[in-house]
Amino acid sequence: MLNSGPEERERWAGAETVERILRTAAELGYRRNPHGASLRTARSQLVGVVVPRLQDFVLATIFEGIDQAAAERGYAAFVTNSLDDPAQREVRVEQLLGRRVDGLVLCDARTDDPLLRMLDERNVPYVLALRASGDHVGAYADEAYGGRLVAEHLTSLGYRDPAVIAGPEYASTANDRLAGFRAGLRGVELADDRVVRTGFDAEAGRTGVAELLARGPAPDAIFATNDFAAIGAIGALREHGLRVPEDVGVVGYNDTPLADSLPVPLTTVRSPMLDIGRAAFTLLEQHLTGESHESQTFTPTLVPRASTRAQRQSDGK
């Protein structure tokens, strides 16, 4: 009964009795039991978070934002890795639901996502973060705008033969960054053979460069839709005797801590990932309490560094 609210307590005892009991409980060091409270409210005050890989700086920062906001509202957040594998993702979600989480924040949504349809059919409360899927509610960066910023930056410096190492087609982040880049080009075309689909890690960047060079001459600039892919691309270019930025300019995405510490600091795009995480939890809580909730989009910014530079006519490009 000590878990009860004031009105409920007054139904089983007078005000003076309630005050005496609460004073005695405080003297004895009593603390409210959240599990007892959850029996009445049917709430566990637990939130499950699914990410592709928590070791990724961006995803770790988003989870930090979710965890901060959850703690401020009396919730605890638990995170698990899906490794972007649909089967493992489904298992992890079922494990979280088995622990009676009140709702889910999914950071690994896919463009065509049967898991979301299943959750809808089961009336499981959830929101998305980072990756979008259809018109599902979530907290996102304006990835198309970020891609546009990269295109405008490169063309303003005189690059005329860019290539893109894009992430997988199931990730809205990769698709939107690529679409924004195409839309932002002025007086320059992005040829189909200048786009390769790999992943978001360093090995993906190395693979992307190898594929581009196998198709023909090196581009004068590469936009990798993830900083780690950009770092892998820089290493592969160096192995092929190409210098950054003298021969090929390189731009990444996400402004990870490594970006500014490379031998050639990396031009990249920064999004407010902590804010995205906090917003995602707020949206989920609004969903749980029946409040109106709509997707929130945050604006990224370009961070120019030494991996891109103005091109001279004498460069022959």
Automatic annotation (TrEMBL):
Domain HTH lacI-type positions: 15-41
UniProt keywords, alphabetically: DNA-binding, Transcription, Transcription regulation
UniProt-annotated stretches for the region Disordered: 290-317
SMART domains the UniProt entry points to: HTH_LACI
Molecular function via GO: DNA-binding transcription factor activity; transcription cis-regulatory region binding
Coiled-coil ranges (or none): none
Pfam families named among the record's database cross-references: Peripla_BP_3
Name of the protein described by the UniProt record: LacI family DNA-binding transcriptional regulator
UniProt source species: Kribbella sp. HUAS MG21
